[in-house]
Structure prediction request, 723 residues.
Amino acid sequence: MKWKKSGLLILLVFFMVLITIEFTGSNGSLALPGSNAGTNVKADSSKDSTVFPTTANLEENLPVLGSYEKLKELLEKINMQNIRHGGPIRYMKKGLALEKSTVQAPMGMADQKSEATTNGSSPDFSTTNVQVQEVDEADIIKTDGKYIYQVNNRRVVVIEAYPAYKMSIAGTIDFQDENFNPMELYLDEKNLVVIGSSVKNIPLVEPKKAPTSGESNTQGNVTGTVQKSFAPEIYPPRYSYGTVKALIYDIRDKKNIQKIRELELEGFYVSSRKIGASLYIVANRNVDYYILKNPREGQDLTPSYRDTVSGDEFINIGYDRIRYFPECPEPNYLIITGLNLDKPGEKANISTYLGAGENIYASTENLYVALTGYEETFDAKHDVNYKDGAVSNEKFSIIPPTYDTNTLIYKFGLNAGKITFKAKGKVPGTILNQFSMDEHKDNFRIATTSGDMWRTDEHTSKNNLYILDSTLKLTGRLEGIAPGEKIYSVRFMGDRAYMVTFKKVDPLFVIDLKDSSKPYILGALKIPGYSDYIHPYDENHIIGFGKDTIEVEQKDAQSNPVGIMAFYQRMKIALFDVTDVNHPKEKFKEIIGDRGTDSELLRNHRALLFSKERNIMAFPITVMEIKNKGGTIKGNFPQYGEFSFQGAYVYSINLQMGFKLKGRITHLSSEDYLKSGGSWYQSEKNIERIIYIGDNLYTLSKGMIKANRMSDLKEIKAVEIPQ
Prediction:
């Protein structure tokens, strides 16, 4: 009997070792930095993963979905986890490890260089404010130095803008698809790309004996089923869904702009990037659970697409062309599409994965897709039994489980419109936006916030920075920054990172990243307010755009103090001097309006016009002002201002004088301001973007384009845009 017990114990230990090897690989240890500036850095060798072999094409090592049955099996597993958690949240196994790849890093700063080649008569001009040099981002406005293309309601308006005194509407691009809603543009010397959303009624596929990948029909790199209508037994014969649509126009002859191609993906738009002539679009498509639970012969749960290079019909992507990530299948499809615009007759490259994406970051060679996941952890007092996916009420504690958030990272190689999976990784916490990620010198850097701001125990919010190598293996981390606060903005600039956290004051942290194994805090500055967006001025100066704040004592119904709260107030611009990295300082600041003042720039970096060479900075803004200063609402909340201005604020900026307001430009008339009645005024004349061509500034709203001299802002010409 003793032998049997010891034998079972030996077998148990043996299998535990096998499981540990399976989930950690042969190299489970991580080289991690020491702690600095009050941060805690912990080595964790318990990371688990399914390790892919290092091969030239890691894509081939991802398992293939293969069949309807496998899809159903994976989704039922996810659904069971969601039921257990009480909601449709993403779930991942504890301790997913970090995987492999190679990477080259470009300079990670915004640039204002021209991306389109213009004729010799055109002057220099501003381009979209982007995160990474040579990686273009779509926007509602694009120019080639002579013409301006503007997304304007459900059309694209083409404006001949240069010379300014001859400015006129050259024409409009209207769309035959009444459901198409244009959102963003790309532009080069040959092509205009219009990206938008649409709604389509797609016929069910022709009945088959089983819902497999269907008959062979190769389109690009996808084998799938051509959708055909048939007489249904149950009405309606079609189902509706959203699509992401890209329309490509040849614009070389401005008087005869021709549409040359359409690409349509089933799903919703995540984001896109354009690198030279290569266009990449990322979309998500939800899985139809109704069809999954009520299958019908002939119905296909895989996403479809349409590329007019191959024909006008939608093609379902076959199960044999869809891959998934074993440790974290998602109840969605992640679709990444690449096009080479220099080869208009070449079919689109479609890569499809069972998964999802929330934010993307792209260098010139790699695309990173970030996704939030959750890990369920339990307090020591929490005792819940799960049986067949349901919660047993026998041992239920009032202490709920804790869900640790994580960010999954998928890395894809980009090459002339082709996409190849390279690596996967995971870090604790969640990211704010694309600026939370960066690639530099073969390393991927990412800043996250973990925990909850409202908690005061060990689960309170903390901010972190992680450095991963080219294989997305963790090499260094800095954790526990500003407990109780969360990240409001991040900017990576070479061997430094700048991080702004906020709860009551605005700490600006300067972080050294030279040693990828030992990131550490160089210095910090605490001032009222916060920055939503950080923009580089030069190597030793950065500009923060955000809000000023004040602290207000809160009282209960009996007027007893119950705490202090920080309330955002006016818009604030600050120029920070980080020459002395150990003692950063706020060199200049500018305050605009009162509580309620807002700018799209605080949510969208593309709304900024900045040129250090031309000493110009401009952005759209809605200004609210308090007429009778000093008042509060019920003693607890600061007073909001009344609407006083909408348009563009134009500044000159230098290191000697700081910010100097050159002037304001508006498209609203005196009558428009009177109509507002002191409330925020939504109008077709609200300025959305400011650009420059030569020595002139151009402000654009949906109802007007106005040209002003850059030197003194004197108006040259205004042209109304017919609605």
About this structure: The mean pLDDT is 80. The longest strand covers residues 561-577. The CA atoms of residues 650 and 706 lie 14 Å apart.
